[in-house]
Specification:
about 100 residues, alpha+beta, 2 domains, 3 helices
Length: about 100
């Protein structure tokens, strides 16, 4: 089943997946309460884009690629731009 269960299995599996697989799982998921998703370009060490879902109501998107930021800006109306990512402590996932 693709969706939330797939997103959970990606986290517990710990292996890299393609952007197409992640996109499909994200579209099929009804809700993401907490999560951090990082994308890297091939042969690049740093993240190309990072998306943090916080409480299913706030998403932080960090990227140095202006095309990514413009795509997010054009898709959503409630956008706040900052000079850098929100500083927060790492939140450990709870596995039951």
């Amino acid at each position: 089943m693709v969706g939330t269960d797939s997103l959970d299995s990606f986290v517990t599996g710990g292996s890299a997946i393609s952007g197409a697989v992640l996109s499909k799982a994200a579209k099929d998921a009804q809700q993401v309460i907490w999560g951090e998703f990082a994308a890297k370009l091939e042969n690049e060490g740093s993240n190309w884009v990072t998306i943090r879902a916080i409480d299913s109501s706030f998403y932080e998107v960090t990227s140095s690629d202006s095309a990514v930021i413009e795509t997010v800006r054009s898709a959503y109306s409630d956008i706040k731009i900052t000079n850098g990512p929100v500083q927060c402590c790492h939140i450990e996932p709870i596995h039951e």
